[in-house]
TrEMBL record:
The keyword Signal applies. The lineage of its organism: Eukaryota, Metazoa, Chordata, Craniata, Vertebrata. This is V-set and immunoglobulin domain containing 8b. It is a single-pass type I membrane protein. It is found in: Basolateral cell membrane; Cell junction, Adherens junction; Cell junction, Tight junction. It comes from Cyprinus carpio carpio. GO terms for cellular component: adherens junction; basolateral plasma membrane; bicellular tight junction.
Length: 346
């Protein structure tokens, strides 16, 4: 036998010894878990980090299982967070993580899988499971990425909704892990042919706006772990549209009473400042509010009762509509149609 080894070429002997060692290692501890090496979860969800293993008869040492959080800094040690040794479990990580991370079953029975509940963005890391039972040892790494779902977005129009102009519909989610993707659709039919949208900013531009483009638009924002949406009812107004009455922060006094004449022009409403009529009831009666001293710290309001002559029409269907029978005054009739209150916060 010694003569055989003496005459056996050294390189072949080395290969033989290596093969024997590898074969022995294959029969030792093996972590058998499979699946993706990277898991992406939404915040507050639960996740399972798999680590099943098998043993060999040659593994005669004590069973030792370690879960560590791998340090991104190569110069720093990995953080040992959970272990099983001598038949006992030891929680070694931060109290916050340990209150949510635990073995999913009995780690001594071939399953060292752990579960983490209510995951947080701070849980994002690479975790390693190492199973040792002398002389065998094996390990597996899995990366957990915790993302934030998009928050419910806000839909609004930037600027006016004037016919013939360019309308800018905007959509914005205040929270959510990047990248966020925005997509506009129209609930009834396709987007206008003049529309162009930006999936990164959430803007939908509609050029040459018209009545045919009105309707309810839906914006959907999404990322890898969630989707949220909002809607906006787009209108189309003529240039002579209802003007907003802006009330100053100072309280309105009788001396500064305003008059609002409302007329209907092609189905839209025009508001303008006007003087009282020379005869007959005023089309607008301004009800004064308390003076500035009395209303300090309270919103300044202007209460308006708007009137239309009987020979005029108006398309005004609002929650504040209080219709009353027409009442005559001379040769003219006044129909009280609206009671409105405008307030400015101090």
């Amino acid at each position: 036998m010694s003569k055989f080894w003496f005459n056996f070429p050294l390189p072949l002997a080395a290969l033989y010894i290596t093969a024997v060692c590898l074969n022995h290692a294959a029969l030792a501890v093996q972590v058998t878990s499979s699946g993706p090496q990277t898991l992406k979860k939404a915040q507050e969800e639960s996740v399972t980090l798999g680590c099943t293993y098998s043993l060999d008869a040659s593994d005669v040492g004590d069973l030792d299982i370690e879960w560590t959080r791998v340090s991104q800094d190569m110069t720093q040690k990995d953080e040992l967070i959970l272990s099983y040794t001598g038949g006992k479990q030891y929680q070694l990580g931060s109290p916050d993580l340990m209150s949510r991370l635990k073995f999913a079953g009995d780690p001594s029975l071939g399953d060292a899988t752990v579960s983490v509940s209510s995951v947080k963005v701070s849980d994002t890391a690479t975790y390693q499971c190492k199973v040792k039972k002398a002389p065998g040892v094996d390990s597996r790494k899995v990366t957990l990425v915790v993302l934030v779902r998009p928050s419910p977005p806000k839909c609004w129009v930037e600027g006016s909704e004037e016919k013939g102009g360019t309308v800018s519909l905007r959509c914005k989610s205040s929270q959510g892990s990047s990248p966020l993707k925005y997509a506009w659709t129209k609930e009834s039919g396709n987007l206008p042919p003049t529309a162009a949208q930006n999936p990164q900013t959430g803007e939908l531009l509609i050029r040459n706006h018209s009545d045919s483009y009105t309707g309810r638009y839906l914006c959907e924002v999404s990322n890898e772990v969630g989707t949220e949406r909002c809607t906006y009812a787009l209108q189309a107004y003529n240039r002579r549209m209802l003007q907003l009455l802006i009330v100053a922060r100072e309280a309105v006094t009788p001396a500064s009473a305003l008059y609002l004449i409302i007329t209907a022009i092609r189905g839209s409403i025009t508001a303008q400042l006007a003087k009282p009529m020379s005869h007959g009831p005023d089309p607008v009666a301004a009800v004064p509010t308390p003076n500035a001293a009395e209303s300090k710290g309270k919103p300044a309001c202007l209460h308006l009762i708007t009137g239309l002559r009987s020979d005029m029409t108006a398309d005004m269907d609002t929650p504040y509509n209080h219709r009353r029978p027409a009442r005559g005054h001379g040769n003219e009739k006044i129909k009280l149609t609206q009671k409105m209150q405008y307030c400015a916060r101090p």
